[in-house]
Amino acid sequence: MGRTTYSRDVSNLERDPQEMRCGADAGAASEVLEGREVPLGGPRAMLVSRTLPHVHRRMIGAWCFVDAYGPEQAAMRVPPHPHTGLQTVSWLLAGEVLHRDSLGSVQHIRPGQLNLMTAGRGISHSEESPEAMLHGVQLWVALPGEHRDVDPGFEHHPALPVLSGTGFEATVIMGTLGGVTSPATAYTPLVGAQISVDGDCELPVDPGFEHGVLLLDGEIAELGRGALVYLPPGRTAIRLSGRGRVLLIGGEPFDEQIVMWWNFVGRSHDDIVAYRKEWMEGEGFGVVEGFDGDPLPAPVLPGTPLKPRGRFR
Hints:
Residues 49-141 form the Pirin N-terminal domain. By secondary structure, the protein is mainly β. It has one helix spanning 269-280, and strands at 4-6, 20-22, 31-34, 36-40, 46-52, 63-83, 86-94, 97-101, 106-109, 114-118, 123-142, 153-157, 162-165, 168-177, 180-181, 190-204, 210-220, 227-231, 237-251, 258-261, 264-266.
């Protein structure tokens, strides 16, 4: 496979980002959310499959952004850029990435390890890797209103707890699954886990959560490639059969409306305008030391006001 150089991380690097609308609405039946291919980083960019936000469903619990990428031979170079009002979750199946942020954190992440960055009121970061086989997912978790302006923070978890059962082994990335809880900081009731499936299994889940299941590799009878399967609350178990790895995300339905634009999560158009202004003026997000290059400029805001919307259309 040829070499690809691309810019990507837990960030939306589209130069003309669309408003991404999330919030609370009534429940819905099970559905398949097909991913859309998004090129990141220019004409030789790697294509990622983005399943959240989706045209019909914007969130699953507090999870509001899901990109899956690879496996592909690639080099990563993501200049410093800002975040607000969310947590970024970096999870690799193959490769290695170097994270730097405005708190002074410098941390490699490798498969089976978690990098969790809480943006809170504002943080900036960069990510880089040498040319390598890269395969992973990048996710955002929206912070609830009472915590959206918390102090920014960074956590690296080199080892995570595992839940084992007949036909499966689950690494609990965030939240709680089957009584096993991740040490990662979470601000709403949720779950994020990588499930290794070997045969037939019943994965215990919280009936109060809505869930999403994404095939990472292998063959799982219930899942197609590139699609996130949404499951409404009410289940005590998810049945899977085959051999492969899947990503499970879920949580209590998020009961707030939010506005997502570029790399910001806010509650109003004015929030986003203020965040963008601060970033472009070099205020509020600190400085990422050690990156050889300029920060990313923010895109131009759309001509119409950004509005908070429901969780799905």
